[in-house]
Amino acid sequence: MADNLPSNQRQGGQQTSDSHDIIYEDKRALRLSHYVMAERCMLVEYSIIKDEIDDGNSDTLTYILEGGFRGFHKFSEEDLIAEYKDKEESFYALYEDGSLPYDLYDDDPLIALEEDENGEVEHA
Predict the structure, then answer these.
(1) Could you tell me the pTM of the whole model?
(2) Domain range list for the chain
(3) Which of 45, 63, 107, 109 to pair with 100, CA 20 to 30 A apart?
(4) Contact criterion met (CB below 8 Å) for 14 and 74
(5) Measured between alpha carbons, how far is 80 from 88 in angstroms, rounded to an integer?
(6) To 5 degrees, how large is the angle CA 79–CA 120–CA 26?
(7) Which residues, 6 or more positions from 61, have their beta carbon under 8 angstroms from its beta carbon?
(8) Could you report the per-residue pLDDT of 18-77, keeping only the tens digit for each?
(9) Count of beta carbons in the 10 Å neighbourhood of residue 25
């Protein structure tokens, strides 16, 4: 059977030891790894799909099912950074409204901010 999955663009595969290396600093000066950015993108897409389904039709889900989707964890660093920049405002809006569809990834620097009484990430 032919492999119809979109190609993996991430060097080293989906998750490697460097998946947790810092590759980007967001607009709030939080230093993000490939893994954290991919998780944040998934949160935004999940929310979009859920809202579309609640409204009766999901063009996003249809697109994924028709053509396949590589997955954010398999994006190259450059592609993931570009994708995250497009989703950053939506991510923070969902976060601030308490509307994220599921919990943040444990290593997301926002977790450390929530736990730090000063509101600063100690090791960022």
Answers:
(1) 0.80
(2) 28-115
(3) 63
(4) yes
(5) 12
(6) 15
(7) 49, 52, 53
(8) 577 899 999 999 999 999 999 999 999 999 999 999 999 898 899 888 888 888 988 999
(9) 11
